[in-house]
């Protein structure tokens, strides 16, 4: 029996983990108002009440553009809140798995990023997440930090759901084609996180602690991602949606995004034996799920 607590009641990772609950795997979601990362004083009591064997720190301030005008709020949650969760885990003598992001990099590297590459976030969000990594590592040596990217799922707000919503009223869309990354299914992440948690509880090995990259296999651009989503959409509905490639400069946003945020995941695969499926396989599954839910609604 493993008791796993996850921060964030309605986040994509929390929802994916809840779906994996079984008799020998209890999942507890911790969130507002009982646990509020912006109020670290609420964290310890909430974690203690859940009495988990391990905690997954996935809740975060994720409004990338809004963070540019709300840096205090972003750092309060992503740095101070994450540190408080790790500290609470340390007080209970349990491991913490912390979810971080590809946005800790500046995107200038021409190849996928590995864990040893220099960080250099170009946005408030990225900076707050990087400082969150530092706070987690300082608060609890028994930590595994997972940097992931371009997360999507049938839950919450994400790129796949946005594209399908726009497809209902639009025949043509302009999508950025010069930012590269690795789309990652939250459902796939959830399965991997459970495997990682089981290993952490069964082994004290230092090789299982530290920073790891974990994202979907393969790479694409936002435009390529959209084109694949709409190819599945057209297959099911018979209605095509055209995607026009545009540059980042043609779609200005308050926050800068890294041009390259592809992640090299070999270190995690070697340590834990986990490799996520190809992004197209998982994206297709999520699109079909969402379209089916739409028909049922």
List the topology elements.
Blueprint: E1 2-7, H1 12-18, E2 25-30, H2 43-50, E3 54-57, H3 71-92, E4 96-101, H4 124-139, E5 143-148, E6 151-152, H5 159-167, E7 172-176, E8 180-181, E9 184-185, H6 186-202, E10 210-213, E11 220-221, H7 222-237, E12 242-246, H8 266-272, H9 279-296
Parallel strand pairs: 1-2, 1-3, 3-4, 4-5, 5-10, 6-9, 7-12
Antiparallel strand pairs: 8-11
Helix pairs in contact: 1-6, 2-3, 3-4, 5-7, 7-9
Fraction in beta strands: 15-25%
In the CATH scheme, what's the topology name?
Rossmann fold
Structural class: alpha/beta
Number of strands: 12
- What is the CATH C-level name? Alpha Beta
Could you give the order of the helices and strands? EHEHEHEHEEHEEEHEEHEHH
Q: How many DSSP H or I helices?
A: 9
Molecular shape: globular
Keywords:
297 residues, alpha/beta, Rossmann fold, 6-stranded parallel β-sheet, 12 strands
Verbal overview:
It contains 9 helices and 12 strands. Helix 1 links the parallel strand 1 and strand 2 (25-30). It has one domain (2-158, 182-217, 261-276): 3-Layer(aba) Sandwich (Rossmann fold). Helix content is 40%, strand content 17%. The strands form 4 sheets. The chain has a 6-stranded parallel sheet with strand order 2-1-3-4-5-10, with helices on both faces. Helix 1 (12-18) crosses helix 6 and helix 3 packs parallel to helix 4. It has helices at 12-18, 43-50, 71-92, 124-139, 159-167, 186-202, 222-237, 266-272, 279-296, and strands at 2-7, 25-30, 54-57, 96-101, 143-148, 151-152, 172-176, 180-181, 184-185, 210-213, 220-221, 242-246. It has 297 residues and is of the alpha/beta class. The two termini are 36 Å apart. The model has no long low-confidence stretch (mean pLDDT 95).
């Amino acid at each position: 029996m493993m008791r796993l607590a996850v921060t964030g009641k309605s986040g994509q990772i929390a929802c994916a983990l809840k779906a994996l609950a079984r008799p020998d795997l209890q999942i507890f979601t911790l969130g507002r108002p009982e646990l509020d990362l912006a109020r670290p004083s609420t964290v310890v009591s909430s974690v203690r009440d859940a009495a988990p064997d391990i905690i997954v720190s996935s809740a975060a301030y994720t409004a990338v553009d809004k963070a540019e005008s709300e840096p205090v709020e972003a750092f309060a949650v992503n740095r101070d809140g994450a540190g408080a969760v790790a500290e609470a885990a340390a007080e209970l003598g349990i491991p913490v798995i912390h979810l971080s992001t590809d946005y800790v990099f500046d995107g200038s590297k021409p190849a996928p990023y590995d864990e040893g590459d220099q960080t250099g976030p170009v946005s408030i969000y990225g900076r707050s997440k990087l400082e969150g990594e530092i706070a987690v590592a300082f608060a609890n040596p028994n930590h595994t930090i997972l940097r992931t990217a371009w997360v999507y799922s049938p839950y919450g707000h994400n790129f796949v759901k946005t594209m399908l919503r726009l497809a209902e009223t639009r025949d043509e869309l302009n999508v950025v084609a010069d930012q590269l990354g690795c789309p990652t299914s939250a459902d796939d992440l959830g399965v991997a996180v459970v495997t990682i948690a089981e290993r952490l509880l069964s082994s004290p090995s230092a090789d299982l602690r530290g920073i790891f990259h974990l994202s979907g296999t393969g790479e694409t651009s936002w435009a390529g991602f959209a084109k694949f989503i709409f190819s599945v959409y057209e297959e099911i509905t018979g209605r095509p949606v055209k995607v026009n490639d545009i540059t980042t400069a043609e779609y200005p946003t308050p926050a800068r995004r890294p041009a390259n945020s592809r992640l090299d995941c070999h270190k995690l695969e070697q340590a834990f034996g986990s490799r996520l499926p190809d992004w197209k396989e998982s994206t297709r599954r999520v699109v079909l799920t969402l379209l089916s839910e739409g028909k049922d609604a």
